[in-house]
């Protein structure tokens, strides 16, 4: 790698009391190492935390809305939607949930390219505002076919959001800063899933207002909230650190150079190369990318199944009231947030990824039998805790696993799209595994979830063998991992 920074020509910016920018002479840095040595550890830590507050919190809050809008069907279902739109006939509810993923999967790949050209602010905020309008429209549908059509459009719009956020975050942080940040990002989203049931129960109380059913107000009010968050996100989102069009003042040019130098030292790909379809698509020849995708897809099989059916299982499978079923969704997601941050902290501290995924799978595998094969309702509800905690904690764990072991902007963009695309496949499976005819135990669906976790364990084992073998070859000087001359090694 040429250590000469492309941003050596940049200028150091300061701000006077009026908030206007003053430009000094350019910093005299010859190499990335010079930049890193110019900052004390305390200064670097403060800058990273500033980025956390601006970037991670912004995309995390926007992801809250994404998950809430994607999974509020289950709340609306038991609030009267299934009865009014006759969704219990011929698996209509399952169809409405899964059609979202048809377009969600297809539009992953172009979205990860588009975000580089439109910029995160225009792309992420724009699609968020658009799907907020779609959500509002879902509150006025007259039949299940119209609802399914809007879900298809929702899939197109949301396709670019999650992989775009994963890709954007990966450009700002070095490899062993990522797991905690991904955990906070997804934790904020999980809080939306936790609170969505309580919010939906409150919105249900608008039953009859303006002549609309309570379930319709769930979509209308959450759609309005989405549009508001999109507008706020437009002003808060920041561009890629290497972009010449910087839209922020919370970092000076000198501090931005530090961020780029840290990424360069860690994996040597801070500045994006020119886009070309050949290197972008050739990433598909790397089998480990498909391993990450399988792990993520099998993880989302469980997370989506729980998100779409937990209130229904609590209501129809365990006998809780409608209100209790809505509110009892929150505690498992809160505990999932605690576990995912704890594993994220441990992963970054000890530089491990695969063992944490295995641990989370085991937690999930303990919980699944409790739900389907134990009589006591309290123990079954505890099983839901374990399933929710284990499966959701593996979302950021898998994101960090793939981000730590892929180099190159467009290869990481391809990997992010593949990862989340398989997440959509998991969503399709998760939409179908729990069937009404399997009440009250849903054992076929639970067997499918158990199988998904066993597949994850097999893939982690295979990747671990490959990574250890390649790392040893790299130490002997026989292999340049990921084409890097900087001593890049896989994270086990």
From TrEMBL:
<feature type="transmembrane region" description="Helical">
    <location>
        <begin position="354"/>
        <end position="374"/>
    </location>
</feature>
<feature type="transmembrane region" description="Helical">
    <location>
        <begin position="380"/>
        <end position="401"/>
    </location>
</feature>
<feature type="region of interest" description="Disordered">
    <location>
        <begin position="1"/>
        <end position="27"/>
    </location>
</feature>
<feature type="domain" description="Major facilitator superfamily (MFS) profile">
    <location>
        <begin position="55"/>
        <end position="469"/>
    </location>
</feature>
<feature type="transmembrane region" description="Helical">
    <location>
        <begin position="55"/>
        <end position="79"/>
    </location>
</feature>
<dbReference type="InterPro" id="IPR020846">
    <property type="entry name" value="MFS_dom"/>
</dbReference>
<feature type="transmembrane region" description="Helical">
    <location>
        <begin position="289"/>
        <end position="314"/>
    </location>
</feature>
<keyword id="KW-0472">Membrane</keyword>
<feature type="transmembrane region" description="Helical">
    <location>
        <begin position="445"/>
        <end position="465"/>
    </location>
</feature>
<keyword id="KW-0813">Transport</keyword>
<feature type="transmembrane region" description="Helical">
    <location>
        <begin position="413"/>
        <end position="433"/>
    </location>
</feature>
<feature type="transmembrane region" description="Helical">
    <location>
        <begin position="182"/>
        <end position="203"/>
    </location>
</feature>
<feature type="compositionally biased region" description="Basic and acidic residues">
    <location>
        <begin position="1"/>
        <end position="11"/>
    </location>
</feature>
<dbReference type="GO" id="GO:0016020">
    <property type="term" value="C:membrane"/>
</dbReference>
<keyword id="KW-1133">Transmembrane helix</keyword>
<feature type="transmembrane region" description="Helical">
    <location>
        <begin position="215"/>
        <end position="240"/>
    </location>
</feature>
<feature type="transmembrane region" description="Helical">
    <location>
        <begin position="320"/>
        <end position="342"/>
    </location>
</feature>
<dbReference type="GO" id="GO:0022857">
    <property type="term" value="F:transmembrane transporter activity"/>
</dbReference>
<feature type="transmembrane region" description="Helical">
    <location>
        <begin position="122"/>
        <end position="141"/>
    </location>
</feature>
<dbReference type="InterPro" id="IPR036259">
    <property type="entry name" value="MFS_trans_sf"/>
</dbReference>
<keyword id="KW-0812">Transmembrane</keyword>
<dbReference type="InterPro" id="IPR011701">
    <property type="entry name" value="MFS"/>
</dbReference>
<feature type="transmembrane region" description="Helical">
    <location>
        <begin position="91"/>
        <end position="110"/>
    </location>
</feature>
<dbReference type="Pfam" id="PF07690">
    <property type="entry name" value="MFS_1"/>
</dbReference>
<feature type="transmembrane region" description="Helical">
    <location>
        <begin position="147"/>
        <end position="170"/>
    </location>
</feature>
<protein>
    <submittedName>
        <fullName>MFS general substrate transporter</fullName>
    </submittedName>
</protein>
